[in-house]
UniProtKB/TrEMBL annotation:
Name by which UniProt lists this protein: U32 family peptidase
Superkingdom: Bacteria
Region (Disordered): 1-23, 283-314
Length: 314
């Protein structure tokens, strides 16, 4: 570029000095793995294309899977040292009120006391079946689950992942999610590398980042940015999403062929990302497969169990 008289590269944002506890700077995640048949296709394709996976996540919700289906997914992931993360529900977009469909920001959240309780029930059911990672899209649900974990009512090694549907876009909001109990936080894929570095400067919580985002999350494709995303955002999960794909949530047998085909293509997209990193000389630093520990993180102090009687509204 310089030999042709074009401008040189601009100054780069500062590198992150943080790492996962295992010493790695990045891990991989395959999202939208909706059920045992889709999982089987993902595992087959990841082996064929040599795409290591640290985490596999699902979006339809715990309540959209039978106990047998969850058990099958847990067993398959445990056998390969892959973290299985299931989404909690129900959420605002699926309840009778119109607000969850009229206002995008409220759609993913748990509306009212009942949906909060139902998300807790989903969490209790999932961990009883062996799930160790839960996907959350509501601040109140996260804080409630973190308090249950702190109290020993959920296993201490349960981890909570914040959904891309509510991802923070500045350092202060990211730190709030960490304080509420998040063990990894999805940030929107339209953030610049410099903005990612600003967030990393205030928090050690792992970031989750779609290097290819589905259309409803912007459809961004950032393969060539992956090396800088890792350098400035570590510790970071690279998420292999897929744009121009059919909507699947909530999935079922009527959508199974599309779900399986999309999942296979997500794995292939992962191979493209890994190949790009290798060509850029940035393929090193991946955590060993089987790693899931987020490391020590900062939390808000617990609130009193109940308000004093004098403070309760009458």
């Amino acid at each position: 570029m310089r030999s042709l008289g074009w401008p040189g590269a601009p100054p780069r944002p500062p590198a992150s000095g943080l790492r996962f506890p295992d010493g790695g700077t990045w891990r991989t995640e395959l999202p939208s793995c909706e059920g045992p048949a889709v999982l089987a296709a993902v595992l087959e394709e990841s082996e064929r294309l040599d795409v290591p996976l640290h985490r596999i996540s699902q979006g339809s919700g715990v309540w959209m899977l039978t106990d047998a289906e969850i058990g099958e997914m847990v067993g398959a992931c445990d056998a390969r040292g892959i973290e299985l993360c299931l989404f909690l529900g129900p959420r605002g977009t699926w309840e009778p009120g119109a607000g969850g469909r009229s206002y995008n920001a409220s759609g993913p959240r748990a509306r009212g006391r009942d949906q909060l309780a139902q998300c807790v029930e989903d969490a209790e059911r999932a961990v009883a079946l062996g799930v160790k990672s839960l996907l959350v899209a509501d601040e109140g649900v996260l804080w409630t689950l973190h308090r249950l974990r702190e109290a020993g009512r959920l296993p201490a090694d349960t981890t909570f992942k914040v959904s891309a549907l509510v991802g923070p876009v500045n350092p202060a909001s990211f730190a709030v999610w960490e304080g509420l109990g998040a063990d990894s936080v999805n940030v929107p894929s339209d953030l610049t590398v410099a903005q990612l570095a600003e967030i990393r400067a205030v928090s050690a919580a792992p970031m989750d980042f779609y290097v290819e985002a589905p259309d409803d999350l912007g459809g961004f494709v950032r393969f060539y940015d992956a090396a800088e995303l890792i350098r400035c955002g570590a510790p970071l999960y690279l998420k292999f999403g897929l744009r121009n794909a059919p909507a699947l949530y909530p999935v079922g047998h009527h959508l199974l062929p599309a779900a399986v085909a999309s999942a296979r293509e997500r794995v292939r997209r992962g191979r493209l990302v890994l190949d790009t990193l290798a060509r850029l000389g940035a393929g090193e630093g991946m955590s060993p497969t089987g790693s899931r520990d987020p490391g020590p993180l900062r939390r808000f102090p617990a609130l009193p169990e109940a308000l004093p009687t004098s403070a309760v509204p009458r």
